From TrEMBL:
Name of protein: Sensor histidine kinase
Annotated keywords: ATP-binding, Cell membrane, Kinase, Membrane, Nucleotide-binding, Phosphoprotein, Transferase, Transmembrane, Transmembrane helix, Two-component regulatory system
InterPro entries linked: Bact_2-comp_sensor_kinase, HATPase_C_sf, HATPase_dom, Sig_transdc_His_kin_internal
UniProt cross-references to PANTHER family, sorted A to Z: SENSOR HISTIDINE KINASE YPDA, SENSOR PROTEIN KINASE HPTS
Record domain Histidine kinase/HSP90-like ATPase: where: 488-591
Subcellular location per the Swiss-Prot or TrEMBL entry: Cell membrane
Membrane-spanning ranges: 20-42, 304-323
Main subcellular location of this protein, as a coarse class: membrane
GO cellular component: plasma membrane
All residue ranges annotated as the Signal transduction histidine kinase internal region domain in the record: 389-469
Topology in the lipid bilayer: Multi-pass membrane protein
Classification via SUPFAM superfamilies: ATPase domain of HSP90 chaperone/DNA topoisomerase II/histidine kinase
An annotated Gene Ontology molecular function: phosphorelay sensor kinase activity
Amino acid sequence: MKKSFDSLLRQAPVHNRVVIICVCFTLLSMLVIGGYLVMVMYSKAYENTYEKMQIYTDKTVQNIDQSFSFITNTGLAVATGGTVGHWINNTRLFDDDSSAYYTNINNLKNETNHVLTYSNAWKTNYISYICILLNDDPLLYVSANQITPNTIYQSAVSANQILKENQEQQFIGDIPPVVDNNQIFHVRRMQRDFNSPDSLSIVIATNEKALYQDYSRYYGGEGNSTYLLDEEGYIFSSSERDQVGEKFEEDIFQEIKSGSNGNFRRDGKNYLYFSKPLSSNSLTLLNVVPEQVIIDQTLEGTPFLFVIAGILCIVLLAVGYIVSFKSTSFIKDLVICMNEVKKKNYDVKMPHYSNSAVDALGMYFNDMTAAMKTLINDTYKAKIMRQEMELEFIQQQMNPHFLFNVLSTVQIKAKMCGDETVYQMLASLSGLLRASLYSGKSMMTSLSEEVQYAEFYLYLQKQRYQDRLDYHISMEPGLERVRIPRLTIEPIVENSVLHGMEGDIERVCVELAITKEEKCLKIRIADNGRGFDTKQLDLSGGEVSLEGTREKVGLKNTHNRLTLLYGEAYGLRIHSAPGEGTVVEIVIPLDRKGESDEV
């Protein structure tokens, strides 16, 4: 079989060999990827199982802790009753030859019934009965079920004996269902002192089945087993009902005690476990899941995966063979044409083919080369045109020195004529034009110069509007030489004046205040104009919408420029509302190093 395959492969054309090798490589790749996916699925199932076990264990421990706390509190409430206190002071209180014997028994029973009335464990049927023993002699019992007194007394005495034999020097303990398969016993034994021969024991029988039904409803995972164990490995409660009261396998139990989670092997099978101790007593909740469950979950989707891979390989083999057989000539012509294009011969053309699909590819190649030729020609022409336009623009530019010389001449004429107002207006206009014409040569300027530009503008507008416009400028000393971006303040001031004059306000006031706050420069421009709804102004980045007003576009451009220079924490802060004026705050850092005057 191997020789015939090698012979077939050698006799096949080169393009067919390539197809076969590619398909085999694809198959191998799919097998590797499939194996990796199976491993990932197993790992994910493993993690999900552990997560479910942990959630179930935490929830179950919380509920069981609460139940045992109710039971413990019930026993404590009975032990702190008045009659028990009298017995501690007088251990002969329950002697049967005492005249008050029956009265004392009755008082103790009434106190016990009173405690049970308010006990949550009694209300939820966790407590089956309470039995009180004097030494090992029964005094009384209170039962919620129809259990014979003899059964109650025998179980209570046995539980009390186990506590004294197996838990020396301890007066409180929990006894597994070894005495009665249906009950977990909580025993509280009291003595007047360590030397007293008499002891009073309160034995509370907990309904193990009610406890099991409570925690079994939280997690019904397949193969899941739950155990409630004590420090010696006795099973207090379990989802494996036949093991209640038995002792857990010693070797496995010792392994489990060494860690809260892990795995162990039992009867030739691997198991995952998660354990957590109860805070109310010395018991531990153990949750066990067979590892085979995780493997079964992982393998559920693998047959479908292999079927798809097999079908895909067969399809690839058939399609590859057909395409390679019919497209060999096309590939050869395509290689030749591509080499010509590589030599910058964009006039090369693919021939026509009888196969419409292959012919369409040839036409696409021809269209591509034609488009490339057109694009190259258009790009070259555009470059030449741009150079000519730049040259023409340079030739048509007016020399700014000529403009300033003319303004200076007119300014001198006004001074000579004694018109101080016209002189100052021309000086302010010249300053504004100088700032605008040379703004492209220097991005940064001093704060004093920037304030001066704004003052030039406000002075010119004051001359225009006379009493309708007032302005006030203040700057904290020591900030004059701080560097800020050119034309940062003037556009905002211009915006305040324009908005103020558009309304019906008799007198527009514009205030420019510059202060230093911590490590930031704060420039505040306020006006009493008509104001606007700030929700209509989006200062976020991106292109400026042409639908916005010129003033809003100016605000957005200024904000974007400052955030690009200094970061999102800086820029414009706008406070405005219709009819309440507008306050624009410019926040710029003071401690930036390495700023340059050059663009």
